[in-house]
Design brief:
The protein has helices at residues 2-37, 44-55, 59-82, 90-128, 131-137, 142-181, 185-195, 198-224, 229-261, 264-275. By secondary structure, the chain is mainly alpha-helical. The longest helix has 40 residues, at 142-181.
Length: 278
């Protein structure tokens, strides 16, 4: 009886040890990627190729998701506010929600689903066919050759996609507000610009730098840890999408808490310095 009672505890301990080991491998890979960033001969050509494959080709799905999200949000908001005589505030609510949360998070989830799966499947296939070992045998660093370009591409590409997501999301809400509820587009945009500040836009876009890095690192980590042949590649692809989505949502909560604690001027100043305009 005692052995039966101890078996669940033993399984729980094994899972905790595997989780700790995997977390350690992820941290080690992240450190190796940062170290490869400062090495000479940065792989610019491969990075540009991955930027086009992971970021540019993700634009259509991000745009479609964002425009319909803005339309649905405007529809639900206007319907609810009409009962209280507050229909003119539709633009304010839609704009603030998309700029601060929905635009960045939806763009990250779409890129995480598409790019994360692509990275995991590609690197997973290379791992099970021993192509990664062949790169090491030739004296090259797989982290610099495979991981760094993909992480760099997702980290830089996601903020640009977020700007598109915010723009088309607000535009989609404006179309519904004008066509179905008679809210003039000029008034709609005026209410958006009167409520949404530059600091709101900066905080929303700044979070996507962390989201993009996390998506790239999760995809590379899962892909390089793939075992079990083609079946393992399929499992790794699914796992990468799930983990990337969870990491994005968890990181969004903590980053939002952190950005709300920071002064507005500090957020705006950091964003301007990041763009190199100071």
């Amino acid at each position: 009886m005692s052995e039966l009672a101890a078996e669940p505890v033993s399984r729980l301990g094994d899972r905790a040890l595997r989780a700790a080991e995997e977390l350690g491998d992820f941290v080690f890979l992240s450190g190796a990627a940062l170290a490869a960033l400062v090495r000479p001969r940065f792989p610019w050509r491969e990075t540009l190729f991955q930027f086009e494959a992971l970021a540019v080709r993700s634009a259509p799905i991000v745009v479609i998701t964002s425009v319909f999200t803005g339309m649905v949000l405007a529809l639900q908001t206007a319907y609810s506010l009409t009962r209280f005589g507050a229909k003119p505030y539709v633009g304010s609510i839609v704009g603030l929600a998309i700029v601060r949360e929905l635009g960045p998070v939806l763009a990250a989830l779409m890129v995480g689903g598409r790019a994360g799966a692509g990275i995991a499947s590609e690197l997973g296939s290379m791992q099970v066919t021993e192509q990664v070992d062949a790169i090491r045998a030739m004296g090259a660093d797989p982290v610099q050759k495979l991981v760094l370009p993909r992480v760099f591409a997702t980290t830089l590409g996601l903020p640009f996609l977020t700007v598109f997501a915010i723009t088309v999301g607000i535009a989609g809400g404006m179309l519904v507000a004008e066509a179905q509820f008679g809210i003039a587009s000029g008034f709609y945009l005026q209410t958006v610009t009167s409520v949404v500040r530059v600091s709101d836009f900066a905080s929303g876009v700044a979070k996507t730098l962390v989201f993009g890095w996390a998506i790239g690192m999760v995809g590379c980590h899962v892909g390089l840890a793939t075992t079990g042949g083609t079946v393992g590649v399929g499992r790794a692809t699914t796992r990468a999408v799930v983990l990337a989505s969870i990491v994005v949502l968890v990181a969004d909560f903590f980053l939002t808490k952190l950005l709300l604690l920071l002064p507005t001027d500090a957020v705006l100043g950091a964003f301007v310095r990041l763009l190199g305009t100071e």
